[in-house]
Amino acid sequence: MNTTAKLLLHCPDKPGILADVTNFITINKGNIVYLDQYVDHIENIFFMRIEWELNDFFIPKDKIEDYFETLYAQKYEMMFRLYFSDIKPKMAIFVSKLSHCLFDMLARYTAGEWDVEIPLIISNHPDLQHVAERFGIPFYLFPITKENKMEQEQAEMDLLKKHNIDFIVLARYMQVISEKMIESYPNKIINIHHSFLPAFVGAKPYHAAFERGVKIIGATSHYVTTELDAGPIIEQDVVRITHKDAIEDLVSKGKDLEKIVLSRAVNKHIERKVLAYKNKTVIFS
Amino acid sequence: MNTTAKLLLHCPDKPGILADVTNFITINKGNIVYLDQYVDHIENIFFMRIEWELNDFFIPKDKIEDYFETLYAQKYEMMFRLYFSDIKPKMAIFVSKLSHCLFDMLARYTAGEWDVEIPLIISNHPDLQHVAERFGIPFYLFPITKENKMEQEQAEMDLLKKHNIDFIVLARYMQVISEKMIESYPNKIINIHHSFLPAFVGAKPYHAAFERGVKIIGATSHYVTTELDAGPIIEQDVVRITHKDAIEDLVSKGKDLEKIVLSRAVNKHIERKVLAYKNKTVIFS
Amino acid sequence: MNTTAKLLLHCPDKPGILADVTNFITINKGNIVYLDQYVDHIENIFFMRIEWELNDFFIPKDKIEDYFETLYAQKYEMMFRLYFSDIKPKMAIFVSKLSHCLFDMLARYTAGEWDVEIPLIISNHPDLQHVAERFGIPFYLFPITKENKMEQEQAEMDLLKKHNIDFIVLARYMQVISEKMIESYPNKIINIHHSFLPAFVGAKPYHAAFERGVKIIGATSHYVTTELDAGPIIEQDVVRITHKDAIEDLVSKGKDLEKIVLSRAVNKHIERKVLAYKNKTVIFS
Amino acid sequence: MNTTAKLLLHCPDKPGILADVTNFITINKGNIVYLDQYVDHIENIFFMRIEWELNDFFIPKDKIEDYFETLYAQKYEMMFRLYFSDIKPKMAIFVSKLSHCLFDMLARYTAGEWDVEIPLIISNHPDLQHVAERFGIPFYLFPITKENKMEQEQAEMDLLKKHNIDFIVLARYMQVISEKMIESYPNKIINIHHSFLPAFVGAKPYHAAFERGVKIIGATSHYVTTELDAGPIIEQDVVRITHKDAIEDLVSKGKDLEKIVLSRAVNKHIERKVLAYKNKTVIFS
Question: Scanning every residue of chain D, which has its alpha carbon at the shortest distance from the alpha carbon of C274?
């Protein structure tokens, strides 16, 4: 596999953007291996993800961002991000007591499914330390009380910084994260909520679903924003239930949903295929 | 096909109910062709639907209800309803301007899929009169304003009574029904709401879904209660959308959901397979 | 709505195609309102659908094809098709005895959901004439026997030609079409098969599914080729069943699938979003 | 939790079975906590699963089978099986090189989701030994060649017997099992096949699905019989794909299906909710 550059961008839609960007790459001998674009005709925004091989590319890797900024980003008022396939993102996992999402992610990681590094797991409870140990990943315990929350989060953030963590996955982490921490990782904290949002925001969604008598339950993975369970949705899925399902059946069926939905969202994020915009996401193909 | 009796019941769960009821039918030479039962172990309620052929049944059709009441219903504090397969329920359809649910139901009706009679269609707009005419069903127009709502609904109810209507289907009827009318048809008014309830209650759910950036949209069929979009859910289904779907795409995809979900719910109701209990439904198999 | 041109093309993938084509449109003052492209990296084929408004476009409508052929198609060895939004495709429906797909399509047609004309319905049985009449569409009866098949199909083809039919929809048409007719409409005959192909090819798929004890049944819409039920698949969907479902339940659940799957496929075809290639389809977004 | 007895049975349908069986339990002071029954009206077979608490039950645990045999099974020509909730079934897992199903099952096992014992894992390749070790489960390697197949399988069966294994799960075990071994475990070997059976029987189903251009792929869990991929289906599920998905995308999406479908089937088997009959399964609710 050759090293590739992955460029995600959005800007006001104008004639010529697509031609300009693809020309830029082609003329400089970049072999385009992926292109997906989309125009929001209501907001008039052009979105694009393009990926090309760097082996024959004229522009040195460390200058691409600069060149692109000068030549195109300013012209088109673009917001863009550039990633390289040979730099693995670093991901931290936060957990509490439930193991299903954690096991699912570590199994994928161990099997080499994800192009990511997981330097550490953080928890507010000791229960899942054994899972971390099975997979040989450092486990840090930060018990949280009302009194120590601020300083514990600060300690967590120091640890994350020390390990150059790029993004955080809340794998059924049962603790609301403070605004300060959320704002330090904008669109970089992925949560799994065990309902079909926006139905059943907040605590105990399976109980609420059972009470309401719904015939389908869901799970939602989203970026965390300062408003609870209201951030940009990355992925959702559902499963059918019946009147015969008790709350514990909902919990059990829901677990399978949660881990699959969360892992799909994390995978899309790792592949740099998610672009958050105005509290929604563009998910590239 | 022999005529069958269909008995739906619920009562506090006690040992012996199932044996007693099946014995009652078997001893009296009724051939059981269907049995589905369910125990809610939290509320301790026994639910049952049982159907048997009447051709050799000892008890005359018009005395079954009386016998069952005396012999079992009092003993077990049962609520029960008895239906006969040779008596078609009478269904009224209420519509406004959108034709997809109406067409879908009339197509099934005309093809003989449903064991029901549809004596009339009621609307607050003239737009769909042509649909009623294509299928030869009387169409009654009751334009509704704030001023005339009470008397128009009274006129509707008079008409429904005159035709011995058993239940009403709101096929995207865009008018809130008053409490008085709802209470005259308890668990007998079936609505289709174009969202995955309880998400997006009220008007314009597709707009709200678009705004929230969900990845899946749904439709919900439920019995109408006096609280808006909060009655017992009969059936739900969903379809996947992406960021590329504009509101009109949601509307278009949603229409297919709505008509299928509504028709499934109506079909279950016609087959006497829905038992509403405490704002939820038991859907027999 | 402005008139648009819709261009579908495929060719060997080379650098510059996308830039060239979008430049061609932009430079000539065409406003691109849709673009979807895809590269098959195994076969090295570039696929594209692009749509632009013609109101300010420099090149006259009737010369676009010629210009594009000369300037780009030859250069890139493209296969392409050009359509205009103000020319409605003409669709013929073939039916036999089952009405559900026919009703569903005519309801959409009547409601103005589809940008198509339906000049006629052809059948080998008289059963559905009443449906055609309800919607005011000419119904032609061509009873088919082993003896008259060749001449009846010739008569059908003459009729189709006379009405300038662009494509044919087999809406549960229970008669195998001969090679000659299939070859006259390459990738222009859309069939609905009542199974999840390639499972249960041929007659009585619901019976076969029941026998096999599957837990999910499906429906498949595909272009008809000379090999039975083996043409390029446009759309599929499934529904869950249980051991409690008898064959008639499969038939009943399947009908809902069939009509939705067929209508989705027809809709994609009408919108010119299907490109058949090597017995598979590219479905543009 | 009280100890319960779980009785699964089937017999020719006759009046009185249900009453007799429920009476038997009720009269002897067994508290019924679960009952699901189903009549196949075509084959005229009655199927039932009933579960009751044993704490006040008059008949000693070790005599129930004998009593039931004498009193009812002979009378109604029943086939029945009796299980007790305090006896955990013993399950062996067979794997080869792919870890996703194995990880998924061991995560559930470790989290206490399943009421089962897993005394050992058997493999024909050493690749997944590390997984077994992470979860502390003995791993036995039986490399298989044409020459040694018979004796290796015999050694496997000796090992299974020694550990009193009740049933076997083939978790993407890439080796056809011989008739002798299959017949030793009738309806006790659960396989996961990575297609929507009966489509794509045999090797490389994702390649075949890709070639055929399907729009949905599936996974099927079934009991192993001597005919390849043709045993009674326990569970199936599907996921949507598009023309953009390469074979490796099918493999990747399929893995998530496989592990969920297999685990659902295993769970149903552990809960004694599967009754295989005539190459089909009754799945109790």
Answer: D243
Is the same domain home to A140 and A246?
Answer: yes
**Across the interface, do C107 and B103 touch by the CB < 8 Å criterion?**
yes
Cβ contacts (< 8 Å) between D256 and chain A: which residues? Answer: 260, 263-264
- With beta carbons under 8 A apart, name residues in chain B contacting D32: 15
User: Which residues in chain B are closer than 8 Å to A280, comparing Cβ atoms?
Assistant: 213, 243
Q: Which of C16, C49, C84 is the last residue of a domain?
A: C84
Interface size between A and D, measured as CB pairs under 8 A: 41
Q: Are A238 and A258 part of one and the same domain?
A: yes
Q: Mean per-residue pLDDT for B32-57?
A: 95
This model of the complex carries an ipTM of 0.95
pLDDT, mean over chain A: 96
Instruction: Please tell me whether residues C17 and C123 are part of one structural domain.
Output: no
Q: C61 and C124: one domain?
A: no
CATH number at D54 reads 3.30.70.260
Find chain C residues with C-beta within 8 A of B107's C-beta.
99-100, 103-104, 107
- Structurally, chain C folds into a number of domains equal to 2
Q: Taking CB atoms and an 8 Å cutoff, what residues of chain C touch B113?
A: 252
Q: Which of C199, C280, C282 sits opposite D196 (nearest CB)?
A: C199
10-residue averages of pLDDT along chain C (285 residues): 94 90 92 93 95 96 96 96 97 98 98 97 98 98 96 98 98 96 97 97 95 98 96 98 97 98 98 97 97
**For the domain that residue A207 is a member of, what is the CATH number?**
3.40.50.170
Give me the domain span that covers residue B58: 4-84
Which among C238, C246, C282 has the least Cβ separation from residue D238? Answer: C238
Q: B4, B21, B23, B25: which to substitute to probe chain D, counting the most D Cβ within 10 Å?
A: B23
Q: Mark whether B77 and B112 lie in a shared domain.
A: no
Among the ranges given (A199-203, A209-213, D165-169, D272-276), the one the predictor scored with the smallest mean pLDDT: A199-203
- By annotation, the residues of C acting in catalysis are 229
Which of these three, C23, C58, C84, is where a domain ends? C84
A134 and A241 together in one domain: yes
Taking an 8 Å cut-off on Cβ atoms, the answer to whether C32 and A26 are in contact is: no
Active site residues of D: 229
* CA–CA min distance D250, chain C (Å): 15
Residue holding tokens 């570039």?
C46
Task: Quick: pLDDT tens for B212-224.
Answer: 999 999 999 999 9
Inspect the interface and report whether the beta carbons of C198 and D218 lie closer than 8 Å: no
**Inter-chain CB proximity B103 and C99 less than 8 Å:** no
Question: According to the 3-state scheme, what is the secondary structure of chain C?
Answer: CCCEEEEEEEEECCCCHHHHHHHHHHHCCCEEEEEEEEEECCCCEEEEEEEEECCCCCCCHHHHHHHHHHHHHHHHCCEEEEEECCCCCEEEEEECCCCHHHHHHHHHHHCCCCCCEEEEEEECCCCCHHHHHHCCCCEEECCCCCCCHHHHHHHHHHHHHHCCCCEEEECCCCCCCCHHHHHHCCCCEEEEECCCCCCCCCCCHHHHHHHHCCCEEEEEEEECCCCCCCCCEEEEEEEECCCCCCHHHHHHHHHHHHHHHHHHHHHHHHCCCEEEECCEEEECC
Is the CB of C19 less than 8 angstroms away from the CB of A16? Answer: no
Residues A59 and A138 in one domain: no
Quick check: C99 and B113 CB within 8 A? no
Is the CA virtual torsion A145, A146, A152, A157 positive or negative?
positive
Q: Do B283 and A243 touch (CB under 8 A)?
A: yes
B103 and B199 inside one domain: yes
Q: Are A101 and A93 contacting, i.e. CB atoms less than 8 angstroms apart? A: no
